[in-house]
Design a protein that fits this description.
Elements: H1 10-64, E1 74-80, E2 83-85, H2 97-104, E3 110-116, E4 119-128, E5 131-138, H3 140-217, H4 225-253, E6 262-266, H5 267-282, E7 286-292, E8 297-301, H6 302-318, E9 325-332, E10 337-344, H7 375-385, E11 389-394, E12 400-407
Parallel strand pairs: 7-9
Antiparallel strand pairs: 1-2, 1-5, 3-4, 4-5, 6-8, 9-10, 10-12, 11-12
Helix pairs in contact: 1-3, 3-4, 5-6, 6-7
């Protein structure tokens, strides 16, 4: 369901679509509940009216009727010893002997419902002196009216639910559309602001690097060289971190799977390229790439997937000792699935944070000043945008494993 002509990126679009669908379902469910309540009330009212009508018919027949007279749907029997008076045509099984015996023994008049040869009857039996009178009422027409009422309620309910679903879908689209527009405006603002910040930050980073290089080549003679070198190095590092944040914001603002950018490529080959590009940052860390199978092909945008792999490697490097070990595995995982796994022997994380680490700038639920940035959140968006899943497993001090599953090309 397209909520707007200019749709937001796929993950947010799916959330908005689900929200609109949930709203439509709630409206339809509310209408169905209201209709069911009204239908039940109508059914009970009609059923009570029919029971009252049957009781009145039986009472009138017992009080004023004559057994030899034929009345539609009503039969009157009069038993005096062995003599039985009744209309010319009577239903099979009557008079109802058990009720006659009870009335003859002095039981009060009671209306009972019996079924004989597949037909339902209401029976009332009374005793007057030595005579027992029994009235029988055929409820077939009443049951037919109830059946028609139920069918009508079901038909109206189905049509009403369909109409309520359509109306709910339209209302859902109208309700969610402003939120989608707000997301678009927010994303454009982030993109514009990040773009404007990138140039001065790049200049700041470059000038800080040049100043640090010049200072190392021309140390001062007053003995403050070490302190100044430390401060300049910190400035260069901070400028680099700001650049990374801006790049992440730009990627987040432009996150989408553009069909024009999609292509088929080997995930193992791309992972090897990312490792080679990250080699200068690894230091003495050991990074091993294990591939199982050949041509582990997926379809998607190569640049975001490269960024996702680089983010997972960067996360492993950041939480691994300088002499630690990082392993990347790319393999076939079931039919139509390619799996990328990044494992490290670093600091790990609290298992309670396995979902929170993918939230933007979230705080850890464990004690301590732990917080998560934007990188893993963007990695999950990239994976979701390509129709895949990502999960993390780890323990404090025992390393972490990130597993990405992406659809393979046919």
């Amino acid at each position: 369901m397209n909520l707007r002509r200019s749709a937001p990126p796929a993950p947010e679009q799916r959330l908005l679509t689900r929200a609109a669908a949930a709203l439509a379902c709630r409206i339809a469910a509310g209408f169905l509940a209201a209709l069911a309540l009204l239908g039940f009330c109508a059914y009970r009212v009609v059923l009570d009216e029919q029971r009252t009508q049957a009781r009145d018919q039986l009472t009138a027949a017992l009080r004023f009727g004559h057994p030899t007279e034929a009345t539609p749907c009503v039969w009157l029997f009069e038993l005096d010893g062995t003599t039985v008076l009744h209309p010319p045509q009577i239903p099979a099984g009557f008079p109802w002997k058990s009720a006659v015996s009870q009335a003859a023994d002095g039981a009060p008049a009671i209306q009972t419902h019996v079924t004989v040869t597949g037909t339902d009857y209401d029976v009332m039996t009374v005793r007057h002196g030595g005579t027992v009178r029994q009235a029988v009422f055929d409820t077939w027409y009443q049951q037919a009216d109830l059946d028609h009422l139920v069918r009508a309620l079901v038909l109206v309910g189905l049509l009403g639910v369909a109409l309520a679903t359509i109306v709910g879908a339209l209302l859902g689209r109208r309700s969610i559309a402003p939120l989608g527009d707000a997301l678009d405006r927010q994303r454009r603002f982030v993109a514009d602001a990040s773009h404007e910040l990138r140039t001065p930050l790049t200049r700041l980073h470059t000038r800080a690097q040049m100043l640090l290089r010049w200072h190392r080549e021309h140390p001062p003679s007053d003995g403050g060289s070490d302190r100044l070198t430390s401060e300049l190095t910190a400035m260069v590092q901070s400028a680099a971190e700001l650049n990374d944040v801006v790049e992440d914001l730009l990627m987040s603002a432009g996150m989408r799977t553009d069909p024009a950018r999609c292509e088929e490529f080997d995930l193992a080959t791309l992972a090897a390229e990312v490792i080679e590009a990250e080699r200068p940052r690894l230091g003495a860390r050991v990074v091993a790439l294990n591939t199982v199978g050949e041509l582990l092909m997926i379809r998607g945008a190569r640049s975001p997937v490269r960024r996702m792999i680089a983010t997972l490697i960067d996360n492993a490097v950041s939480h691994t000792e300088p002499t630690g070990r990082i392993e990347l595995s790319v393999r076939q995982a079931g039919r139509g699935i390619v799996e990328l796994e990044v494992t490290d022997d670093g600091t790990g994380f609290d298992p309670a944070d396995r979902e929170r680490i993918f939230e933007r700038f979230a705080q850890s639920g464990s004690p301590g000043p732990h917080h998560f940035g934007l990188g893993l959140a963007l990695a999950r968006e990239i994976v979701a945008d390509h129709g895949g899943t990502i999960r993390a497993v780890g323990r404090p001090g025992a390393g972490a494993t990130f597993t990405v599953r992406l659809p393979a090309t046919a």
